[in-house]
Amino acid sequence: MKATRRESGKIWSSTFSQVVFTDIPHSYPPSTTVTCRYTYSTAFQPNSRDWVGIFKVGWSTIKDYHTFVWVEQEEGQLTSQAVFKG
């Protein structure tokens, strides 16, 4: 497994993840809109049940999410975003 990182901690490429989140701030102010931007690998196979969730630090199971939104991949697009309203 390998990931390539910039000095800022943003992942440029990955050989083990099919979805890579980009432009991730260290923290978010309370009650603000959060936009999660991500890139798909060409091997990614979208599913109608795909979702992006926000988890507390230290989560241990997939059920530990705080909130989530359903997402869809537009045909031919390798980037997308999920928006969580503040």
UniProtKB/TrEMBL annotation:
It comes from Oryzias sinensis. Pfam families: SKICH. Residues 19-83 form the SKICH domain. Keywords: Coiled coil. This is SKICH domain-containing protein. InterPro entries: SKICH, UBA_autophagy_assoc_protein. Transmembrane segments: none annotated. Gene3D superfamilies: 2.60.40.2840.
